[in-house]
Amino acid sequence: xxxxxxxxxxxxxxxxxxxxxxxxxxxxxxxxxxxxxxxxxxxxxxxxxxxxxxxxxxxxxxxxxxxxxxxxxxxxxxxxxxxxxxxxxxxxxxxxxxxxxxxxxxxxxxxxxxxxxxxxxxxxxxxxxxxxxxxxxxxxxxxxxxxxxxxxxxxxxxxxxxxxxxxxx
Amino acid sequence: xxxxxxxxxxxxxxxxxxxxxxxxxxxxxxxxxxxxxxxxxxxxxxxxxxxxxxxxxxxxxxxxxxxxxxxxxxxxxxxxxxxxxxxxxxxxxxxxxxxxxxxxxxxxxxxxxxxxxxxxxxxxxxxxxxxxxxxxxxxxxxxxxxxxxxxxxxxxxxxxxxxxxxxxx
Lengths: 169, 169
Prior knowledge:
alpha+beta, 4 helices, elongated
């Protein structure tokens, strides 16, 4: 089962009409904007991720980082991407209609992620179209932004997801 | 300190002339191709990452995954990106010249990562140029491929890194 310590909710006024266990391509409407959160990231979280996947000193050595350009420890950009993904899995993607993603584009780390950050994800549905080659599924393009308490964006990216149609033609 | 369980090495015939604690922009030569590895990924590794960051059933429920399109558990694409990053930090990036990365592009998950995979990273230096606005640093573009034992690519991406010059003009 998923890590039960992470409890988040819808933060925006609107959300999908259908829960994630009854959600299909047709439920992704171009122009919709949803926010989910919040996730608090601790120094221990940053150290634990970085020791395994990104052990650069700026991510694992608080003393070194304090003397550096960011004046303190900052999280791995791949850690911030993982936090954004967790919010998407818990609230945005479908448990029944999601197919594999081919990839993501334009991953940007504009703002450092720091210990104590309170993070939410904002996702904007940028495009949604039925596949021409496989008409049982559609392709949804989403603009994903992980936003901190000051409005900074530790990570943003453009995601592509394949989703089954509820009612194929 | 970094997770000491991960022990990897240079796999290609050539590597940088300089170790990572004496490596600067000038050491990144366009056209160079280096390989580092290998990392073995277990079912437990896949479950641990996914429970925290990507708890989709295909990543956390072996029975569900066995009946699905991949006929077995597959790792999160963000987990494969983390494994590639670890190899880059341990062997490719500079401990003294690396500045923050603005982001990555064209992240692609072409092949599932499966329990038991033996993974190596291949990195190709695609471009390297001195910054016009900040002549103490350069911009290195790298094509990164995480490759499994069958030649499949669980993740590939194009990375952009800023690096200090050893000898600024």
